[in-house]
Amino acid sequence: MEKSVVVQQQGGVPLRFAGVSKTFAGRAGPVEALLPTTLEVAAGEFVCLLGPSGCGKSTLLSLVAGLEVPSSGSITAGGRPVQGPGADRVLLFQDAALFPWLDVQGNVAFGLRQQGVPAAQRAARAQELIELVNLKGFERSFVHQLSGGMRQRVAIARALAIEPAVLLMDEPFGALDALTRDRMHSELETIWRATGKTVLFVTHNVREAIALGDRVLVMSPRPGRIVREFRVSLPRPRSLEDHALVDLAREILAVLYQKAG
Ligand code: ADP
Ligand code: MG
Question: Does residue 4 belong to any structural domain of this protein?
Answer without folding.
Answer: no
